[in-house]
Amino acid sequence: MLKPLVRVEGARQLRSTMRKAGVDMQRMKSAHGKVAKVAEGGVLAQAPRNTGQLASTIRSSGTTTAAIVRAGYKRTPYAGPNNWGWRQGAVGLRGSFEGNFWMNKGAKNTESAWLQVYYTEIEKILGTIKGA
Prior knowledge:
By secondary structure, the protein is mainly α. The protein contains five helices and four strands; from the N terminus they run H-H-E-E-H-E-E-H-H.
């Protein structure tokens, strides 16, 4: 399991409080979707451009617990190795190579923007809980 770039202290308690207050959990999913969309722009800017095929597979989504940016499909399974690298002896490829962490860099480059979106969305949600 990959570690998140940012971990929010109290996020589990917030979701629990939202459920108890009757706040629609879709709001949290929507907030994470907006955050992921901002990060997606940074990841897209850092994507390798040899053919452009990998860049065309970048997509974002939000769940109630996370903002997610993914790359690659079955036809383009090399997104992970391009990002993380490939160790010697791993199944599927000969040799080894270092990853360049292009997805991490892209998310990090837009961090101030997506953190602001996250803070704004959470404040909106908290405003509805206080009024409930």
